[in-house]
């Protein structure tokens, strides 16, 4: 049973508590408070064995099954096909006239790290201070009870990459499912990738303060500064490699002098060794080219985030097996003389050039629910509908290294599934059921709750 | 330097091509066999639209046009009225006069830049008219300008001459300016609280009422001394007299309600509540006054006072009989207002035509320009968009956008021009003045990136 306590009652209870002598009793009552907010925040859904029947199944990895069944048990897709036997005791969902899709994946968000953009700085955990923060882990900042999470998942997005930003090395990004009461419940790959803002030519100054004067620096100086930062980054990567070698050597041979633990170096080690990807933020051709060269030189596993002009660097990207997380559908072209659809048609151009890519909102959290429309708009400008769908399901799963578990409807994969009444990428389509990790998720959010509270007010 | 050169050349090319377009415009245009979504009288299949002298002359099946008429085959395509964006800062060289809390003397008309590339990009998204508003830095901001996006024309052609004038008001975080630290040595401006914001507005209207009385007395010859003109109070007198529309930026429902109560007291009606992301909490009070709401479809959480915003806002307001429009407040979002309208069907279930009205006829009504634009009806300006598919489909894009029968965006022509522009760009980049530093050229001017998602924000205001 949930307690509902009004502010007035709270005040009374608090005054009683002030008199309370027993620490034990205080603890007991405050734990009752923790459960008493009555919101959607702990609605993690219902586990069980489910069968979605009579469904049009868009597997994404294979052909569409026009009339099929999906069985979900133990959090996984137990069976999928046109002739699947429904196990006894399974809860049936008749999906006649509906389509089932794999949950969408947004590979570039700050989900859970940024609740309220302005006016509530205490809710922002996106950027650490300083330029080099390899040891900052998004997984430890994600708020499992952020209201953005429910708002996002009820529109069919079930997995995201949550990334820290800021500085040159921002920290480590986490692949999370949008369900769970704890960070651990949500984690799919808790330390997936290292975020690096690839150094670029910046001419200084600016910001949003209208009274602050920009202090532009000389262009030549800016180029030098960029080059120096890239060299610094390379040196840091080499140092991290050496650090890891020293630690390894000591692990094998304890007679060696013990090298001091350095958290930043230790954090970098798996990335500079190519065990996990480094995600470079880069937009313009020059910067993407630079990042590709850096990846080739340092032999890291590279991904580009942003990627406005990645299609112009197709050869280098392909040669070095670099994929692109494209975040620029809801952005204006930078130059006045860029074509009006310059950023809308970039995914089609990447597809044509054979660059591996996925489409992401690049949003801090609140608007991640628009992911299908980002993909759909790319579809309006040259990308096939099929590729547009893949760009928010299978392709991000592949780029995030989780395609064995997510991104398509196949037996054995995690049951992140969405049942919808039309084309998944269309704004008029309604989501009818969402499963995350095999749990049937309630279609409620901060928004539906406020709607219910006020819709009939006279 | 480099950028300026490229830009000027582009402008001159655009002007030339648009001159060609306008040479044809006096002829008749016949749009044939389209699915016409009128935003007034339903959706008409296999329908023709005949345009004469920039006006919609006839709508029907198998219409005949003069032999020299330009015919556009729209088979398989959708036609809608041009989109009207009821909250925009496009083509404005300045957004906020920050200095005072009442800046009603300032005029957006004075800072319009008709060469802003964002206009063209808006046209490519189907936008044909916009309410250009002062920013939200002041409790009472500047005078608006209602324009049509006649890109390539002189600035005076943009301004809709017979549109009623308006003015921007702002409530909450932005006029409080508590989201922004004053520069070192700068005194914080009054007001600092919601209490102060409302008092600033009340004080201004009391002064305006007294000032109006002075003029009324003078005109009625009760006094012989002519009052000194006050450019701050003139527009507020027009508000009291119902001659100037108040567009009131705000988020929290209590603030918007307080402003409407203040307006009741001074005897005017607030024309639109802008943003109004909590308007669903006070829908009956808004409906009762005949005030309209111009909202975002579903933006939320980007600031504290947007935390209670819900995408069902439009539906609840519509159900209560409030005139609702969906605006962009953004050069970026402006390009996809059709999808924002589609979201009204998704969240709550606003009917299709009512959703379409929220980006066409409703904003036209809010701006007092619905006699000329906002729907496809005979006698109205031919402000028309031809879409490749149903405009609420994410796969749809405009093929052609016209204003008063003149084509301002034509995708096929846009694409045809690209190779030529690319060549020109390359040639310009090779010029000595444009060569990179260190290779003998002059260093380029500092580029100004037009990437702000929200101009108001870049100017210190934020929506």
From TrEMBL, chain A:
Organism: uncultured Pyrinomonadaceae bacterium
InterPro entries: Amidohydro-rel (IPR006680), Metal-dep_hydrolase_composite (IPR011059), Metal_Hydrolase (IPR032466), Metallo-dep_Hydrolase (IPR051781)
Broad enzyme group: hydrolase
Location of the Amidohydrolase-related domain: 345-440
Pfam families hit by this protein: Amidohydro_1
Protein name, UniProt field: N-acetylglucosamine-6-phosphate deacetylase
GO molecular function, one term: N-acetylglucosamine-6-phosphate deacetylase activity
Keyword terms: Hydrolase, Signal
Signal peptide per UniProt: 1-34
Cited Gene3D superfamilies: Metal-dependent hydrolases (3.20.20.140), Urease, subunit C, domain 1 (2.30.40.10)
Domain of life assignment: Bacteria
EC number: 3.5.1.25
């Amino acid at each position: 049973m949930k307690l509902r306590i009004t502010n007035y009652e709270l005040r009374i209870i608090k005054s009683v508590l002030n008199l309370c002598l027993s620490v034990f009793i205080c603890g007991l009552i405050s734990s009752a408070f923790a459960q008493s907010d009555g919101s959607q925040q702990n609605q993690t859904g219902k586990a069980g064995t489910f069968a979605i029947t009579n469904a049009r199944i868009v597997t994404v990895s294979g052909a569409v099954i026009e009339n099929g069944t999906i069985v979900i048990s133990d959090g996984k897709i137990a069976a999928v096909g046109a002739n699947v036997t429904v196990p006894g005791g399974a809860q049936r969902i008749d999906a006649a006239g509906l389509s089932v899709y794999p949950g969408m994946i947004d590979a570039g968000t700050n989900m859970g790290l940024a609740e309220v953009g302005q006016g509530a700085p205490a809710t922002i955990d996106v950027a650490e201070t300083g330029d080099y923060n390899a040891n900052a882990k998004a997984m430890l900042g994600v708020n499992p009870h952020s209201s953005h999470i429910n708002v996002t998942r009820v529109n069919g997005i079930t997995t995201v990459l949550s990334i820290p930003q800021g500085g040159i090395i921002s920290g480590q990004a986490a692949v999370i499912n949008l369900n769970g009461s704890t960070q651990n419940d949500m984690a799919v790959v808790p330390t997936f990738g290292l975020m690096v803002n690839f150094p670029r030519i910046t001419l200084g100054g600016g910001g949003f303060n209208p009274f602050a004067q920009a202090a532009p620096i000389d262009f030549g100086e800016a180029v030098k500064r960029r080059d120096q930062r890239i060299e610094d980054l390379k040196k840091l990567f080499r140092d991290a490699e050496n650090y890891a070698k020293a630690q390894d050597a000591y692990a094998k041979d304890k007679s060696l002098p013990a090298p001091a633990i350095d958290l930043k170096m230790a954090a970098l080690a798996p990335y500079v060794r190519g065990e996990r990807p480094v995600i470079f933020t880069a937009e313009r051709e020059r910067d993407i080219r630079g990042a590709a060269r850096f990846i080739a030189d340092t032999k890291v596993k590279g991904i580009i985030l942003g990627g406005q002009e990645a299609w112009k660097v197709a050869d280098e990207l392909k040669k070095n097996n670099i994929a692109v997380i494209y975040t620029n559908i809801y952005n204006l072209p930078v130059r006045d003389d860029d074509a009006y659809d310059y950023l809308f048609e970039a995914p089609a151009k990447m597809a044509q050039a054979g660059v591996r890519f996925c489409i992401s909102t690049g949003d801090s959290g609140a608007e991640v629910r628009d992911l299908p429309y980002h993909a759909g708009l790319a579809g309006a400008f040259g990308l096939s509908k099929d590729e547009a769908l893949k760009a928010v399901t299978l392709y991000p799963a592949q780029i995030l290294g989780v395609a064995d578990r997510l991104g398509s409807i196949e037996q054995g994969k995690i049951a992140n599934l969405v049942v919808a009444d039309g084309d998944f990428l269309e704004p008029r389509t309604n989501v009818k059921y969402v499963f995350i990790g095999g749990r049937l998720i309630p279609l409620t959010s901060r928004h539906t709750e406020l709607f219910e509270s006020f819709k009939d007010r006279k | 330097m480099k950028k300026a050169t490229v830009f000027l050349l582009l402008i001159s090319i655009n002007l030339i091509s648009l001159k060609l377009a306008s040479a044809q415009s006096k002829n008749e245009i016949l749009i044939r066999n389209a699915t016409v979504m009128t935003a007034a009288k339903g959706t008409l299949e296999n329908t023709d639209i005949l345009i004469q002298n920039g006006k919609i002359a006839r709508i029907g099946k198998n219409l005949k046009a003069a032999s020299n008429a330009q015919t556009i085959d729209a088979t398989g395509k959708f036609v809608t009225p041009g989109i009207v964006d009821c909250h925009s800062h496009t083509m404005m060289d300045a957004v906020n006069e920050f200095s005072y809390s009442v800046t009603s003397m300032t005029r957006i008309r004075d800072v319009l830049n008709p060469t802003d590339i964002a206009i063209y990009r808006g046209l490519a998204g189907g936008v044909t008219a916009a309410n250009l508003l002062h920013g939200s830095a002041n409790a009472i901001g500047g005078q608006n300008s209602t324009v049509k996006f006649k890109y390539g024309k002189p600035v005076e052609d943009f301004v809709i001459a017979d549109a009623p004038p308006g003015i921007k008001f702002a409530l909450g975080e932005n006029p409080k300016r508590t989201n922004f630290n004053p520069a070192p040595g700068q005194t914080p401006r009054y007001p600092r609280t919601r209490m102060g914001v409302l008092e600033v507005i009340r004080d201004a209207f009391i002064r305006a009422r007294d000032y109006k009385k002075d003029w009324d007395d003078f005109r009625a010859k009760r006094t012989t001394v002519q009052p000194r003109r006050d450019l701050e109070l003139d527009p507020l007198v027009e508000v009291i007299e119902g001659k100037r529309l108040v567009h009131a930026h705000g988020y929290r429902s209590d603030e918007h309600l307080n402003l409407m109560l203040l307006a009741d007291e001074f005897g005017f009606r607030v024309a639109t509540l802008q943003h109004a992301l909590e308007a669903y909490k006070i829908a009956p009070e808004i409906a009762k006054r005949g005030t309209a709401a111009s909202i975002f479809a579903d933006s939320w959480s980007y600031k504290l006072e947007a935390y209670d915003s819900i995408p069902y806002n439009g539906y609840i307001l519509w159900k209560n009989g409030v005139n609702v429009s969906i605006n962009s407040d953004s050069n970026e979002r402006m390009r996809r207002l059709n999808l924002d309208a589609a979201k009204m069907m998704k969240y709550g279930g606003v009917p299709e035509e009512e959703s379409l009205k929220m980006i066409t006829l409703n904003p036209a009504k809010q701006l007092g320009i619905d006699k000329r634009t906002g729907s496809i009806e005979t006698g109205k300006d031919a402000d028309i968009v031809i879409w490749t598919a149903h405009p609420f489909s994410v796969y749809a894009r405009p093929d052609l956008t016209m204003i008063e029968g003149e084509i301002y965006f034509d995708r096929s022509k846009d694409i045809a021009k690209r190779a030529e522009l690319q060549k020109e760009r390359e040639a310009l980049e090779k010029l000595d003045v444009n060569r990179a530093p260190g290779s003998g050229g002059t260093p380029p001017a500092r580029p100004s990136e037009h990437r702000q998602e929200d101009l108001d924000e870049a100017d210190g205001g934020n929506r």
